[in-house]
Amino acid sequence: MAAFGWTVGELLKLEHPKDRITDSSPVARHMDSTTQPPNVTLVIPGRNVAGVIGACLESVRGMLDSHQLAEIIVVDDGSTDETRTIVNGYPVRCIQGRGEGPGSARNLGWRAAQTELVWFVDADCVVEPDALSLLLPHLCDESVAGAGGSYGNMFPNSLLACLIHEEIRQRHLRMPTEVNFVATFNVLYRRSVLEQMGGFDERLKLAQDAELAFRIRRAGHFLKFDAKSRVKHHHPTNFLRYLRTQSRHGFYRVMLYFRHPDKMIGDSYSGKIDHIQPPLAMLCLASVLLVPWPSLRWITGGLFLILFVLQLPMSLGITRRVKSPTYLAFGVMSWIRSFARGMGMCWAVLNTFRPNAARAKAPK
User: pLDDT digit string (tens) for 187-216?
Assistant: First the structure.
């Protein structure tokens, strides 16, 4: 019987004993759809996503008919647009969220699921047909808690969207199969592990997927990554809006590293060069105060130059891979982005030392 591009016979011939499918494994139960119901629930969180949720649901509704999914759960996290109306037109269960962010919405979703495997996809993503089938074999090993995938690009005619997308792809293509970080735009988790970990940290409005992955690895479970499993994403096309989002990323990254200081030097997705850029950008801005002194101006110029040079490895790597000089523009984009992330990080540090009653929120 063929299922998701694999046959049961092919999977049973896997050489490693941990990769063999047993009758009791979640993957085996999922694949034997003639005698067992599908064992995967798809959870899609969203707030004010009327412009994208229809395309997302269209891409996965057929998985119910083909018995790849037991259920689709959409968590409407307090939308004020037509999100709920659109969702009600599909054969899905819609849960009303509390408007407390994606971590809270995802927790509501997986706790409502009745299956052992829970697949998270973001509302602004369009699922490629084999995205789930490529993740499932990784869960044959009972020591694997989850498996994540990669992105496609919904806006190939936007330079900004393409720059963002090719950076992500560049990072994903060099990631190993065994990782310490998977992102929730396309990740399959065991519900039992989510229960053990207590789910996502709802205090983090961003980076809660990284925080959960770090805790899962610390608990001794394994995570896998498959770059061939893809969901197409509506990458940003407005640069100022993108920078505002990156500032928020910087803010919540500080909170993340307070919880996991060992990850300040890097993880499976990003490394030391990436993590040093936002603080260096803030040092560049501080060094502007030296400009009135001619003998010290070289320090300011040198710091700005170093920050730009740090963009070159990624910029050149992308350009060589896609074979287009247009992608040299990534260096300028990421150089500017460093300042946005750095400002968000500075805001988070200042916020940390304020009295609780006066603490500021993340930048919007």
Answer: 999 999 999 999 999 988 889 999 999 999
- Fill in the DSSP letter of residue 123: T
Nearest to 110 by CA among 134, 93, 85: 93
CB neighbour class for 67 (10 Å; exposed up to 12, middle 13-18, buried from 19): middle
Domain that holds residue 182: 2-237
pLDDT < 70 stretches in the chain: 1-37, 353-364
User: Is residue 187 assigned to a domain?
Assistant: yes
DSSP state of 224: E
155 lies in the same domain as 291: no
Q: Round to whole Å and give the CA distance between 158 and 241.
A: 14
The CA distance from 42 to 66, in Å, is 14
Do residues 41 and 11 make contact, with C-beta atoms less than 8 angstroms apart?
no
pTM of the model: 0.85
And the tokens for 364?
Answer: 């919007």
Residue 253 counted as domain residue? no
Structure tokens at 2: 């063929």
The pLDDT, as a whole number, for residue 184 is 94
Tokens of 35: 């005698």
pLDDT at 98: 86
Q: List own/partner pairs for 328-333 with CB under 8 A and 24 or more apart.
A: 329/159, 329/163, 330/163, 330/166, 330/167, 333/160, 333/163, 333/239
pLDDT value for 354: 64
Q: How many separate helices (H) and strands (E) can be counted in the chain?
A: 15, 11
Q: For residue 297, count CB atoms less than 10 angstroms from its CB and return exposed for 0-12, middle for 13-18, buried for 19 or more.
A: middle
The candidate with the shortest Cα–Cα distance to 150, out of 166, 139, 136, is 166
- Does residue 78 share a domain with residue 21? yes
Owner of token pair 């490394």: 271
DSSP code of residue 295: G
What is the structure's pLDDT at 355?
A: 57
Does residue 248 sit within a domain? no
> What per-residue confidence (pLDDT) applies to 20?
34
Do 274 and 219 fall into the same domain? Answer: no
252 in any annotated domain: no
If asked whether residues 219 and 92 sit together in one domain, one would say: yes
pLDDT at residue 124, as a whole number: 96
What CATH number does residue 193 fall under? 3.90.550.10
